[in-house]
Structures are given as structure tokens and as C-alpha cells.
Amino acid sequence: MSGERLTLTAGTLTLQDLRGWWETPRRLGLAPASYDAIRASAETVAAVVAEGRTVYGITTGFGSLARQTISADQVAELQSRLVRSHSTGVGPALDDRVVRLILLTKINALARGHSGIRAEVIDRLALHLNEELYPVIPAKGSVGASGDLAPLAHLSSVLLGEGQIRQGGPQGGQIRPAAAVMAERGLAPIELAAKEGLALLNGTQVSTALALHGLFQAERIFAAALAAGALSVDAALGSDTPFDPRIHSLRGHDGQIDVAARLRDLLADSEIRQSHLDCDRVQDPYSLRCQPQVMGAALDIMRSTARSLVVEANAVSDNPLVFPDSGEVLSGGNFHAEPVAFAADMLAMAMAEIGALSERRIALLVDATMSTLPAFLVAEPGLNSGFMIAHVTAAALASENKMLSHPASVDSLPTSANQEDHVSMAAHGARRLSDIAQNVGHIVAIELMAAAQGIDLRRPLKTSPKLTRAMEAVRSRAAFLEDDRLLAPDIEALTDLVLSDWFPSRLLEADLLP
């Protein structure tokens, strides 16, 4: 675990905070002032119960059972029953990075003091985060409204000493019953008070964490794709004229302007470019020439998505909400994850387009008539197939992404006996971002390998100094292809590079990405 510690003032998480927690486990403490708001909120709920007021989820059932009144002596039992009944998730367990973000954003939301939950419950969640005692959360089962109910129930079940825990850290990975882990640490199960189960289960934290997981992968892929695209320009004897700032200033999109500037920087001082300045080619194919327009649009989407998800990560998104100043408990719909669903859908399309553009550049490079390089980038084509089937793999992945990028937010299926009659489908809309990211990561890895092959085939001419650094990183994982060999290990090694922070940290300015 990192030695870094964040003292959190509830509602103030930044994108950098969220990205840092996604990358590395850290330690969290709440600012002392947060406890006053938490205490006032819990006291308001206690007063509702003492006064015998009828308030949804506190003294009533849930969903379409809201008309069922719960007696005062069953109010606490209602909350633990809620957690058990809603623990119906299925599928593989969520990645530890996602679970960290879920815990962090749930703590952040509850600590704002509008959820009616006691400090000891929030502190126990913080213990799980700090000690890397990650609740095992099945990935599937949320429709993205009424909160991410099933996955958050699995998170909450460990507080009751139920469910399962996966210990993080270098010695971690083992899944064990929560009761056994807690007993070893001398932790007693928590008895939930009025409203607490509902506060834990309501909220968009799972959808938001999954969308952030997709965004942070997209950032790395985007940076690698910029480098791959620049390498492909040089490998194909393309021009840097389309990246002239005067062209992009006339259109005015920030992302387009920024991408063009980065491509100019990456290609600066290339010997290959200097060698064909006076060639008779008038215009390059779109996959080379229109990179600022396509990648810039993707960058704008990523920036917009980041802003939306930071707002959501700081939001109070459970129901009902407690307002201690007036003593009111108001029912609303902040649990509806439509903003997250829209953000995830837009990000899915942007990532799919990054992959589609990369696949087109691979196709260009392996086509001798377009690239003026040996067919399929290998000596003795015919005897060797070279990059022929690596391109087929890229095409398959790009096509799969078209299916995966279909918007999830346009779907809805009523639940809870039609009480919850419109839902966002944000959870699986965000979860599929990881599948797209893996596909695009592989596509960009194949382009890096193909473009590096093309650059080497242009020797003794050299590419630019910055792209030479990218070439060295590629060649440290995938050797020049002299004759046909198994390329799958090279693709996997380069995909690991694409999905690492190498390209953002080594080749891009920090402020280019969100």
C-alpha cells in the first residue's frame, strides 16, 4: 500500500484523487469537521423513528412495498434484511481497482451528512479501504436506478459479517468468508440502525466506479494511439502538413487543436519526413490526415466524461435524503444514474473510434500499394505472411467494438412491480468499457508493432527523437519481424505497454488528458 494518505473533506474528491486511488491503494481519513454533519444527519433519522413519522425506507418497506408500515421495534431489523435480500448479484467479481473506487466514493457520499448513517458505519467502510479488505462484489445485477442495489448490497454484507472478502496487497488475492476475516481482526458485525441499510445500498457508486475504470484505461490507450498514429505517418511517408495549427484554429475545437499540436511535436525533426518533403503526393488517406479531427473529438469526449464523473463521484445519490437543518427527510431520485449512463455511452463510442482509426492505419501499412512498404511488412511475402493475420485480428476487434458501443442508456426495463419504471442501465453500460478498452488496447498494440516494422524498413533514415523513444519501448517487447513467428506473445506484451502509464507519462504533457 502507498504511504500516501488523504484527509477527505466530504464532497471534494478530484479526478487526480480518483485516478490515484485507482492506480494504487492509499489510506483515507475523514476531516474532523465531517463528523458534525454525519452526527446531525443520524440524529435526524433517530428523531423520525422516535416521533413515529412515516418516512420511506425508515418506517416503511422498499420500492413498491413503500405503503407497508414497519413497526418501531422492527426498524433496525428492516435494514439488515434489506442487505440480505438485495445480495443477488451474479458473474465475476469486480476488479480490486473498481472496488477501491466504490468504497472511496461511497464513503465520500455518506460523509456529506445527508444519508442518516452513523459515523461508526462509515469508519468501518474506511477500515476496509485502508486495510485492503475488499468485499467480493459480483459484477452483474444492477439496472442503474434505485441505486446500484445488488452490488452495493454485496459490499454492505461484509459489515454484517456476511458475504466474502478478498485481501488485497502483494500477499492477497485469497477469497474468504467475511466472518472469518473479521473474527481474526477482532471486528464485531455491525448492527445497522434505521435508514442505514438503505443509505448503503442506494447510490450510483458502482456505475460511477466502473465508468471511471473505463476512463482511466481510455486515457492510457489514447496516449498510446497518438504515438502509434504518429509512427504510422512516418512509416507510410505521410505528411505533417495536415497538423498545421492554422487549419485547426479555423475550426476551433479544443481537442482537435491539442491533438494536432501533439502530433506535430511527436514528428518534429524526423529524418524520414525530411526525406520526402518535395514528393508528389498531394493528400494522405483519412486515417493519417484526419487524426486531429477524430482523436480530438475523442479527447473532447474524454474531458467531458471526466467532468461529469467527478461531479457524480462527489454526489449524494441515495434516497431519501436527510436535511438536518429543517429536520426533513425528502424522497427524490438522485439514485438514477442517467448522467453516468450517458457518459459511459459517449466514452464507449470514443474508444471504439480510436480503435477503428488505428485498425485503418494497420490496413494501410500492410497494403504495399498504399504504404510503398513490402507487402504485409515482411521480406519474401508469399513465403512469409508477415502482419496479414495480425491485421485480421485488429479488424475482428474493431468490429466487435461496434457491437459493444451500442448505447446502453436508450434501454429501460421496469422493475419492482412497475414502481421503478424507468432505469438507466448505467452499470453494464459502464462495465462494458473494460471490454472495449481491452480490444482497443490490442488494436493499438498491433499498430505499434506494424508501424515500428515500417519505420525499421525505412532505415537508414530515422524517425523523430520522441518517436525513437516509443520505438525503443516497442522493440524492448517485440523484435523486428525477419520471418514469420508467433506474434500473439508480442501483441500481449505490447498491450501491457499500451495499458500501462508509459505513454501518458513519457510522451504526453500531463494537461493534455482530462
Describe this structure in words.
The structure is a single chain. The protein is mainly alpha-helical. 54% of the residues lie in helices and 6% in strands. α4 (96-110) crosses α9 (205-235) and α9 crosses α11 (254-267). The chain is elongated, with a radius of gyration of 26 Å. The chain starts with a strand and ends in a 7-residue tail after the last helix.
Helix and strand run: EHEHHEHHEEHEEHHHHHHHHEEHHHHHHH
Roughly how many Å apart are the termini? Answer: 25 Å
Radius of gyration: 26 Å
Q: Tell me what portion of residues adopts beta-strand conformation.
A: 5-15%
Kindly report the name of the CATH homologous superfamily of the largest domain: Fumarase/aspartase (Central domain)
Structural class: mainly alpha
Number of strands: 9
Mean pLDDT: 93
Report the principal-axis shape. elongated
Keyword list:
514 residues; mainly alpha; Fumarase C, Chain B, domain 1; two-stranded parallel ribbon
Write the layout of secondary structure elements.
Blueprint: E1 5-8, H1 15-23, E2 27-30, H2 34-51, H3 75-86, E3 90-93, H4 96-110, H5 119-130, E4 133-135, E5 138-140, H6 149-157, E6 164-167, E7 175-177, H7 178-184, H8 196-201, H9 205-235, H10 245-249, H11 254-267, H12 271-275, H13 286-289, H14 291-313, E8 321-323, E9 328-330, H15 338-366, H16 368-371, H17 388-404, H18 426-457, H19 465-475, H20 488-498, H21 502-507
Helix pairs in contact: 1-4, 3-6, 4-5, 4-9, 9-11, 9-14, 9-15, 9-18, 11-14, 14-15, 15-17, 15-18, 17-18, 18-20
